[in-house]
Amino acid sequence: MNEGEMDAHLGYEPYEQAETTNSRNGKNKKKDSK
Questions:
Q1: pTM assigned to the model
Q2: How confident is the model at residue 32 (pLDDT cuts 50, 70, 90)?
Q3: Residues 33, 22: Cα–Cα separation, whole Å
Q4: What gap in Å lies between CA 34 and CA 1, rounded to an integer?
């Protein structure tokens, strides 16, 4: 999954602070992504 797909999947930009508990500078990755 590239950054564009990640942006679309998460619904926000990689470095945008989102109002979610799993957001850490928007650089977190799902553990089931592989």
A1: 0.16
A2: low
A3: 15
A4: 9
Q: How many CA atoms lie within 13 A of 26 on its CB side?
A: 15
DSSP labels, 9-29: HHTS-TTS--SSTT-STT---
Rg (CA), the chain: 9
Q: How far apart are CA 19 and CA 34, in angstroms?
A: 25
Of 8, 13, 4, 10, the residue nearest 29 (C-alpha): 10
- Residue at token pair 């992504």: 33
- Contact assessment for residue 18 and residue 26, using Cβ atoms and an 8 Å cutoff: yes
